[in-house]
Design a protein that fits this description.
Mean pLDDT: 97
Structural class: alpha/beta
Number of strands: 7
Distance between the termini: 37 Å
């Protein structure tokens, strides 16, 4: 452990699997205590058991639907109760939907935005006061890291709702950054933009084509020639969560294998 976030407390949403799990593990390995939250409580408990097996009392599990304000309040309050504060919020929970603009229903549109965008808004709104108090008391920097997507920058013909929600997360992150800077909270806000990553969000394509063919098909769209691994994104989050990035706010970090350069 090199301790890049030693002494910090982090809350990671959607951390029962995929990018959230990789991020929670990364932050814990680097010294943070982590609130692992997910609507899948059983999965969150599994991750916490693994983290606490490596370092005692380094993680807690919280059942958490990010679309519900009351559950956000509970997650933030439980983190403060168990760990005494909060330095880092990682808004990772999200869903994908592959449908074009004419076939998507209003219900589907609203569901994608409720999870992928409203959940980020609620997290920022309800966590900022606690992060600000913790930063002031501890002297350690605060950070909000919102997981957007390269789809928030590059549009697709069949991803209308996902494109819309993730693009909004990118801009919301900048608004939060300016708000916190103006208030002098010591909280930075940035967004991370992955391309295709080997996580359960690709399961639909994997089920249709098989793992190797699905990953190869997606990899051919990426200049580096392959899709990413969860730790590729977790390392990006770690940098933004740490004080190494103390002068970085309102930015987007593209971890996209070069696809946005095309």
């Amino acid at each position: 452990m090199s301790g890049r976030v030693e002494g910090k407390v982090a809350l990671v949403t959607g951390a029962a699997q995929g990018l959230g799990e990789a991020t929670a593990r990364m932050l814990a390995r680097e010294g943070a205590r982590v609130a692992v939250t997910d609507i899948n409580e059983e999965g969150a408990i599994r991750v916490v058991r693994a983290l606490n097996g490596l370092r005692k009392d380094s993680a807690i599990a919280v059942s958490h639907d990010v679309t519900r304000e009351d559950q956000w309040r509970h997650a933030v309050e439980e983190t403060e109760r168990q760990f005494g504060g909060l330095h880092v919020l990682v808004n990772n929970a999200g869903i994908g939907l592959t449908k074009d603009f004419e076939t998507i229903t209003l219900e589907e549109w609203r569901r994608v935005h409720a999870i992928d965008l409203d959940g980020v808004f609620l997290g920022c709104k309800l966590a900022i006061p606690l992060i600000a108090r913790t930063v002031k008391a501890s002297g350690l920097g605060g950070s909000i890291v919102n997981i957007s997507s390269i789809s928030g920058i590059i549009a697709g013909h069949n991803m209308a709702a996902y494109n819309s929600a993730k693009a909004a997360v990118r801009h919301l992150s900048k608004s939060v950054a300016l708000h916190c800077a103006k208030r002098g909270y010591g909280i930075r806000s940035n967004s991370v933009h992955p391309v295709f990553i080997a996580t359960p969000i690709l399961d639909g394509l994997v089920d249709r084509l098989g793992r190797d063919e699905a990953y190869a098909k997606l990899g051919r769209q990426v200049p580096l020639g392959h899709i990413g691994e969860p730790d590729d994104i977790a390392y990006a989050v770690l940098y933004l969560a740490s004080d190494e990035s103390k002068f970085v706010t309102g930015a987007e970090l593209k971890a996209d294998g070069g696809i946005s350069a095309m």
